[in-house]
Amino acid sequence: MKTGHLLLGISLALGVFVQPGLAKPADGGESKTDQTSTKKKATTGKPANLPEPKVCWKKTWTFDSLEFLDYFDISCPKNIKVINNHLVLKMTEDCTNPGLTYKNAIHYGKATAEMTMANGGGSVTSMVIDFEFVGKDLTSVQSTYYVNGKPTKDTDKGPERHHSPGGDDVNLSKTFETYTIDYSCDRVYFQVGGKTQRKAIKGEVDKYPAKALDWSIDIWNGGKEYFDWAGKTKWGEGERTAVIRKLEYAAYC
Ligand SMILES: *[C@@H]1O[C@H](CO)[C@@H](O)[C@H](O)[C@H]1NC(C)=O
User: Of all protein residues, whose CA lies closest to atom 1 belonging to ligand 1?
Assistant: First the structure.
């Protein structure tokens, strides 16, 4: 198989939906809301002056055991393997959506994955609040967020692209990188390699996601309905694997 022909698709998607009835106020002591709602300040440029949320619980998963199965539901188990302390997800024609979904509801918190994205046109690796790696483009990851299942005014111009801090040409299907979605009641930060590359700050954006849904990491076939974006899926042209070496979730109080 010719890897040279492969395109890389990974979408790291964090689906954030507003469900006002369910919106859960932070139960921690800090009150952060005043800061954000009143200010209409630079969304770009300087970091907003928000206090760091307090972490109540944190868990790291590495793949030296099957302990992660206690915490994550698996789709396409036949295409998910632990190999040398890495979790390998493989998309095949008969199993197009291998992935992990965290069993508990996630609220405000910081979800991090160290991974490589799957190669191949049509493959979309995704970490849901939205980071997407698309098969036509091996060197960038795209961020999006949704409110009530729809892109907002801030996102309907399309996802934003980000590169590894290591350089615009770092091949994200080959090089492990750390992707973080850091979501509090005030703001969402999208980070690549620990650097914030995008923010949505409550009070500054059109609509702010009040609730995160699942935390999942998977590969899906974008080559059917979304081929303009993801590329066509040509089965048989090499392996479509995403590899995860570490996951972490820090829940905010
Ligand atoms: C990225 O790496 C893959 C192998 O993992 C290779 O098939 C692909 O051609 C590389 N692409 C670029 C743009 O370097």
Answer: 171
